[in-house]
Batch of 2 targets.
Target 1
Amino acid sequence: MLEYCPICHTKIVRKDTEADYYCPNEMCPARKIENIIHFASREAMNIDGLGESIIEDLYNENFIINITDIYDIDKYEEELMNLEGYGKKKIDNLKSAIKNSKNNSLERLIFGLGIRNVGAKTAKVLAKYYKTLDNLMTASYEELVNISDIGDIIAKSIINYFSNVDNKNIITKLKQFGVNTTYINNSQYEEKDEFKGKTFVLTGSLVNITRDKASEIIESLGGKVSSSVSSKTSVVVVGDSPGSKYDKALALGIPIWQEDEFLDKIEN
Ligand SMILES: [Zn+2]
């Protein structure tokens, strides 16, 4: 068990309600880098090309010290070109990934901010409910705990995050850089009886749709996606060379849809 942060040597703490130990020093470089990595990660702002080692480089060069600096990276273009391993193509790709991330729907931003106890799923619940970041920022504790899936700990954590001046400044800056702060419901799907309230498991490799997209569509149609087959599974969607989940579905007598059948049900 670590007692002190390996980077800044502050004594590590754990809150009663949480499992993880963490460094409480707001200025800790390790923490700051972690925040930036989290913000850019796939489930958050999904900035392609802004992975762990690049972020460490950019942090060490003082180009990106906090998440808002990501959107100001243009001003270091020349310096970046002079860094080892950073060609024009790599920098152009990075710049366009950063630009694209400004159009993300609100849930990615909420998750990316790294509010304690707010995971990707909770971020989505909040984005759908509040529609804009401004609405969420002014939400009261009473209102938050009344949303299903939001409990006391999460509600307090949200209130706490948005009452912090530094965090408010970060959000103001992100807005100035043109980062979208509204919920974009980009699903053209309406809930359907065949999906509503049902639990789906995907197995095998799907050919005409990615697994992420399939999961997203199932959710917009009112269903849930689970990773393991049990008696509670409603349907197993099967792609090429399915494994043990398929066998288990057969054994349990769970309805099985082939990929074509699944695509058909989505569209019709
Ligand atoms: Zn530290």
Target 2
Amino acid sequence: MNIVVTGASKGLGLAIADKFADDRQGHTLLLCARNEQRLHLATTYMQARYPRARILARACDMSKKEAVLQFADWILHKVDKTDIVVNNAGQFVPGSVHNEPDGALEQMINTNLYSAYHLTRALLPGMMAAKEGHIFNMCSIASLQAYPNGGAYSISKFALMGFSKNLREELKQYNIKVTAVYPGATMTDSWSGSGVDPQRIMKVSDVANMIYTASFLSPQACVEEILLRPQLGDL
Ligand SMILES: NC(=O)c1ccc[n+]([C@@H]2O[C@H](COP(=O)([O-])OP(=O)(O)OC[C@H]3O[C@@H](n4cnc5c(N)ncnc54)[C@H](OP(=O)(O)O)[C@@H]3O)[C@@H](O)[C@H]2O)c1
């Protein structure tokens, strides 16, 4: 299979890419992140560990429409079709509507919503023609409920959930599955410096394992939502 994962140089995206790369079937992974050096390091290490996989990577700022479209073109030149798209790239900036900096919402919407919207639209024609595929959208529990310091981030994640739900309805008839993923707190760089005990929150592999499993069900079954929380609940 050909599997696209955005924001794959660390955190959840890297864990998801790693999980598919580890598959004995030997998939092709098409990955991106902004920082080329870190992306190169991550993918070189992954390729060395999983020689069956074919790992391709390209730097891309998914908050910029032109860059997203170039990334999509690159994907379509590398592979004849995309089987799985994981719209994971995203950024968490805490804030409150009343006092977050001007432009915070634009930044969060560009990074957390338009990234997924533009990439999906560019890849969909091929998937619709093939009448198969699976799109995962990395939402958050911040898509489901408001919480202190949610601000523009939470608004953008609510919007991503709306995108995912609409896509699910549209794509049923094309045999393309859509899954909204709602993780609670998961140990990544997003939590670095927070002082949170890593044992209190989830591991990236918890989320990666669920996505991997959801992608191998029978064609007639679609996991519409994956909602995961730390065992002791939200922080
Ligand atoms: N960790 C959690 O608790 C949690 C919970 C719920 C949902 N999520 C969601 O899960 C996703 C991944 O979060 P994470 O915690 O794994 O974050 P992370 O550790 O900070 O990793 C983010 C990844 O995305 C890339 N990225 C960030 N902005 C990008 C952009 N504009 N274009 C392309 N790549 C970009 C980063 O690389 P570069 O910086 O080099 O671009 C990195 O590879 C996000 O959508 C986040 O909202 C996380």
